[in-house]
Amino acid sequence: MLKNLQSKKTLHNGIEIPYVGLGVFQMKDPRETVEAVKTAIDSGYLSVDTAAVYKNEESVGEGVKESGARREDLFITSKVWNSDQGYDTTLKAFETSLKKLDMDYMDLYLIHWPVEGKYNDTWKALERLYSEGLVKSIGVSNFHQHHLEDLMNNSNEKPVINQIECHPRLNQEKLRTFCQEENIAVEAWSPIAQGRVLDEPALKQIAEKHGKSSAQVILRWHLQNDVVIIPKSVHANRIKENADLFNFELSTDEMNQINDINQDERFGPDPDNFDF
C-alpha cells in the first residue's frame, strides 16, 4: 500500500488519490507558488491541493504547465469558498476556478466549510458537476460527523473525502472512525500543526531512533492511520523531506505514543462556529 510517493488510496467511487500531495495554503507570491508546484512534481508528487480563497489557482495551473507533466497523471483539488455557496453561485465559482487553473476538469472539488443553510444546496451543485464529468470526485472539508450525516440524508452522492484539521494534538479519532465506517477517506490539512508540535519529547525520541525529523515521523503516523496528507512548503529541501516517508515504519508502540499526544486542541477554527 505505502510503497512510495506515487502510492494511492482508492476512494469509494473507484478514483485513486495520492496519499501525499502538496498543499499551497498561504502561498501568496505567484512565482514562488509556481516554483513550489514544479519542484513538487519534479520530486515525484502527483497531487496539488488549492482553493479559491487561497487566490493562487492561476499559479498552480502555471506550475503544472511548466512542469511538463501530463495532466492525466496529476490529481488537482480545489474548493468552493463560503461566500460562493448555494447552487447557482457554486456552479459559477467552479467555472471561475477551472478557468484560473486553465484545465478542462478537476480531480476533486470540495465544499470548504459547512456553511449552515447552504451546504446542502452547494452539494447539489457539486453532484451536477460530478455527473457532467467536470470533476472526477466530490467531497467536503471541515465537516463534523453531524454535518456529514445531514449531508448524506439529503444527497444522492456520498462525499469521497473529508479534509479536516488533523495532527497529533488533534487526532480526530472519533471522526476518523466514523468516516472509515462510511467509506469516506480522511485527508489532513495542517498535518504537522504548522510546526507547533515538533518539540514533543515522544516525537523527538522516535525521530532520533529512525534517523528522521519529527515532521517526517508525524507524516508517517498519518499515513499509517490511512490518512491522506497535504503538507505545505515553498522550500525545495522541505518539499523533498516531506516526501521521504517510505523507507521506515512506526511500530504499534510508537503509533500509540503519538496517539497519546492528543489533547483535542485545535489551531484552526471549529467548524461549528467559524465566522468567515
Task: List the topology elements.
Elements: E1 8-10, E2 16-18, E3 22-23, H1 30-42, E4 47-49, H2 57-67, E5 75-80, H3 87-101, E6 106-111, H4 119-131, E7 135-141, H5 145-153, E8 161-165, H6 173-181, E9 185-189, H7 201-210, H8 214-224, E10 227-229, H9 236-241, H10 252-259
Parallel strand pairs: 3-4, 4-5, 5-6, 6-7, 7-8, 8-9, 9-10
Antiparallel strand pairs: 1-2
Helix pairs in contact: 1-2, 2-3, 3-4, 7-8
Briefly characterize the structure.
The chain is α/β, with parallel strands linked by helices.
- Strands of the widest sheet, in order across it, are 3-4-5-6-7-8-9-10
CATH H-level name... which superfamily?
A: NADP-dependent oxidoreductase domain
Give the number of DSSP strands. Answer: 10
The best one-word shape is globular
How would you characterize the largest beta sheet? 8 strands, parallel
**Number of self-contained structural domains:** 1
Write down the Rg. Answer: 18 Å
The termini sit apart by 38 Å
Low-confidence stretches: none
CATH architecture: Alpha-Beta Barrel
Strand content: 15-25%
Helix-strand pattern: EEEHEHEHEHEHEHEHHEHH
| CATH C-level class | Alpha Beta
CATH third-level topology = TIM Barrel
Helical residues, percent: 25-40%
Q: What is the structural class?
A: alpha/beta
How many helices?
10
- Average pLDDT for all residues: 97
Pfam family, one: Aldo_ket_red
Protein name: Aldo/keto reductase
Domain NADP-dependent oxidoreductase: 26-262
Family: Belongs to the aldo/keto reductase family.
